[in-house]
């Protein structure tokens, strides 16, 4: 049976990992024309721009699911912000 420390280590590894589809060609988050800092901005306009770009991605739903599953606490993933994911988690746990 895994110890609490081992489970915490696994969760940390999952949080820092990238989704498996991130290497697919043509993803908006990997487009060199898009500012990579856009996905981690604190500026609401830039967050909205990042979300709009995410919605053009064929993996938007998978990315959002991955971010929820791995409890990503920063950045825009699957057109969701950290705040969106935190609210979704609260609703599920309520």
TrEMBL record:
One of its GO terms (cellular component) is cytoplasm. Pfam families: Whib (PF02467). InterPro entries: 4FE4S_WBL (IPR034768), Whib (IPR003482). Belongs to the WhiB family. It comes from the Bacteria. GO terms for molecular function: 4 iron, 4 sulfur cluster binding; DNA binding; metal ion binding; protein-disulfide reductase [NAD(P)H] activity. This is Transcription factor WhiB. Transmembrane segments: none annotated. Its cofactor is [4Fe-4S] cluster. Its main location: cytoplasm. GO terms for biological process: cell redox homeostasis; negative regulation of DNA-templated transcription. Residues 28-87 form the 4Fe-4S Wbl-type domain.
């Amino acid at each position: 049976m895994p110890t609490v420390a081992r489970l915490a280590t696994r969760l940390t590894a999952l949080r820092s990992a990238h989704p498996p589809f991130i290497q697919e060609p043509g993803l908006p988050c990997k487009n060199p024309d898009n500012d990579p800092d856009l996905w981690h901005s604190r500026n609401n306009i830039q967050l909205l721009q990042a979300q709009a770009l995410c919605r053009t991605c064929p993996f938007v739903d998978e990315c959002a699911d991955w971010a929820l599953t791995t409890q990503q606490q920063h950045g825009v993933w699957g057109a969701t912000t950290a705040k969106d994911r935190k609210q979704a988690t609260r609703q599920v746990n309520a």
